[in-house]
Amino acid sequence: MRLLVTGGAGFIGSHLVDRLLALGHEVAVLDDLSSGHRENLPPGVRLHVASVAGPAIDEIVAAERPEAIFHLAAQVDAARSVREPLFDAEVNVLGTVRLLAAAAGAGVRRFVLASSAAVYGEPEALPVAESHPHRPLSPYGIAKSAAERYLECFARERGVAGVALRFANVYGPRQTAHGEAGVVAVFCRRLLAGEPITIHGDGRQTRDFVHVADVVAASLAALGAPPGAYNVATGLEFDIVAVAAELRRQLAPQARVVHAEARPGDPRRSALSPQLAARELGFRAAVPLAEGLARTASWFRSHPEGRER
User: Fold this and answer.
1) What are the tens digits of pLDDT across the range 193-236?
2) Cβ neighbours of 127 (radius 10 Å)
3) Which residues of 4-14 are buried (b: 16+ CB within 10 A; e: fewer)?
4) Measured on CA atoms in the order 137, 141, 143, 147, is the torsion positive or negative?
5) Considering just the CA atoms, what is the radius of gyration of the chain in Å?
6) Catalytic choice (120, 140, 150, 230)
7) How many angstroms separate the CA atoms of 188 and 80, rounded?
8) Could you tell me how many helices (H) and strands (E) the chain has, helices first?
9) Collapsing DSSP states into helix, strand and coil, what is residue 259?
């Protein structure tokens, strides 16, 4: 297939590009390189350096004529969205709408949107199913919720079959310090530098950590999935203290842990039900947290510059 991956030079996107190429697909990438890196892409991949919120999107999508689009380009920092809600909306809402309009104009029939557990807010019960109301706690979560609604609208009115993947906290090789699971990358970097690690709040807040390899598998499954929204998660809760302890064990057992104020817009607990994705996508997360953290720590140890290529 001819495919376009936005945010394809970033953490999750570059892993997806690698897998798509290995499967024989023709892949083009759109990335403004604000957090992604050219070095994350293999030689020969067509890279359009542009923002999804910019005016070049129509021309790029029309020129590439993709059969499907994976939309991973985003402002992914919930804390930044609190400080800069206008910027967050420009990228995550208007950028998505602009890309959807370009996709509809170019006859794209499949659009896979990277959404987020942030749409749910503070959960009523765990693990959270897709039917849970949207009650986001941050502008980032609000924007992701709005992007899903626009995806539904374009599917209904313009024939772009849409799949929204609500990622839990994604971690793994090539991760940056930004985003919902950026804590893993931050901890790895500081531990390897011999510095103390900082936990915001008491560290007992829980998250559903899903390895990037599992996210790639779910994204591939979405190419043929029924339209709708699906959690991409393990269904398991792990607190930040436990993650910090495991990474200290892997990288620097003697490292100090310090605590700072809790961050606004952070839910206390989070875990997403994987049942709908298992039933409709045939997807189940396969990488246990301990194994995934060990693989991630090993990668950071071997790549002090933070990039693979």
Assistant:
1) 999 999 999 999 999 999 999 999 999 999 999 999 999 999 99
2) 20
3) bbbbbbbbbbb
4) negative
5) 18
6) 140
7) 21
8) 11, 13
9) strand
pLDDT tens-digit profile of 69-115? Answer: 999 999 988 888 999 999 999 999 999 999 999 999 999 999 999 99
User: Amino acid identity, residue 145?
Assistant: S
Answer whether the bond into residue 226 is a cis peptide, omega within 30°. no
Q: Are 68 and 3 in contact (CB under 8 A)?
A: yes
- CA 190 vs CA 143, 169, 210: distances in Å: 31, 20, 22
The Cα–Cα gap between 236 and 119 comes to 18
Report pLDDT for 306: 55
Vertex 83: Cα angle to 80 and 88 (nearest 5): 60
- CA separation for the pair 30, 243 (Å, rounded): 33
The pair of structure tokens assigned to 197 is 């690690």
Q: Which CATH class is domain 2-170+209-233+273-286?
A: alpha beta
276 closest CA partner among 288, 268, 284: 284
Annotate 140-165 with b (16+ C-beta within 10 A) or e (fewer): bbbbbbbbbebbeebbeeeebbbbbb
The low-confidence residues of the chain, meaning pLDDT below 70, are: 178-181, 265, 305-309
In the three-class reduction of DSSP (H, G, I as helix; E, B as strand; rest coil), residue 131 is classed as coil
140 is catalytic: yes
